[in-house]
Amino acid sequence: MRSAKGSWDFAGVNSSYLVHGIHPYPARMHPHIVKILIDRFGKKRMIIADPFCGSGTVLVESLASGHDCVGVDLNPLACLISKAKTTVIPKEDLLLTQKQIVDQLSRARRRSILPLEYRKYPYRFWFKRKALGQLLLLRDLLTESNLWSSRSRWLLVSALSRTARAVSNQRPSEFKSYRLSEQDLRRHNPDVFGTFRGIITDTIMRLGAYYETLPEKVRSGSIEASLVQADARDLGARKIVDMVITSPPYGDSDTTVGYEQFSRIPLLILGIRNRKLGWTRGSDPLEDTWTNFPGGSTATLFSRVSRIDRTRSRVLRRYFASLWRSLLNIDSMLRNDGVACIVVGPRTVSGIRIRTPDILLEFAQALSLKCLSRTKRRLVMKTQPRRNNLAQTINEEEILVFRKGG
Length: 406
Prior knowledge:
By secondary structure, the protein is α/β, with parallel strands linked by helices. The protein has two domains: 18-88 and 215-404, 3-Layer(aba) Sandwich (Rossmann fold), CATH 3.40.50; 91-213, no CATH class. The protein contains 13 helices and nine strands. The strands form two sheets. It has a seven-stranded mixed β-sheet, with helices on both faces. A hairpin with a 2-residue loop joins strand 6 and strand 7. The radius of gyration is 22 Å and the shape is globular. The protein starts with 30 loop residues before the first helix and ends with a strand. 42% of the residues are buried.
């Protein structure tokens, strides 16, 4: 299912249909890419893995195609959203859940909110006092209900997370941490319970429609999705999957995608300790072990960047060390003759264009991965600015497809 002109750009093609739209998430892979890759390079029955599953696009499309799948992500919020999307619940059970939630919300509106120690609450910068009090009351009502121990828990978690962002002082159109202007803050008076009710209604509608599209074996539970919160650099799995479809992070610095910043507010409300989620943050105790990269491109690249900014060069070195280690794990988890589909794009660091797809090809050549195809696509729907203060940002990416040899 390509766009009208037969390209991979998918201009004007909805990427948030069914459960893909139940929760925003940075840099989601377009679901139609996954559909085409499964159809073109897959086989009748297989296990598909995404070691950077994010909010679960690959998992959702794998189930819809009738394949078992495994998702891995370091970000706990990503795993929670993916779990909400891939937990299969019959339509009648979803409607019953919705009725119970509406009843609870009616009682919540009549319940008094205890005085909030606002000055002691973390990140109060991101919430008005009334909104924060209502949000914490809503969280407590949900966690105390019998639904929290049922299969519906994950859709509640997803809806609560989405509500937290929607009623916060965060700018609604930004993935990174930007607060509303003072003028907008004066007008900002969110209705937490009303917002949650609208989000939960939308979530249940989408999950019900998705359920209707699933093969019978998925509905019965004989085909399912598994989620693991883990680091793709350290999986150690061997020959367990037939296909990998994934898009590694481009980094988590000021000029790339802010996964950590995006997750901060929901994780706070969910009571999950905020972690350093980016590849380029801090020091890696194994970094020195992974500095002998295959090919010659990286050494030249690090030298060029170092002449401009040594700190950025070290950050870039950690990034490619992480990419190399992750590719080793992808190669290890694939069965012989398995297929790895990896979506990556170029970046700009210190004004220098980083051709990540070319470097990834060099890495693959050092392993048992043979390139089958290489396709460019434009990013026609983009929430990040197309230019930063130095140069062009990520405006295109490439889809690289490899087959594992014997």
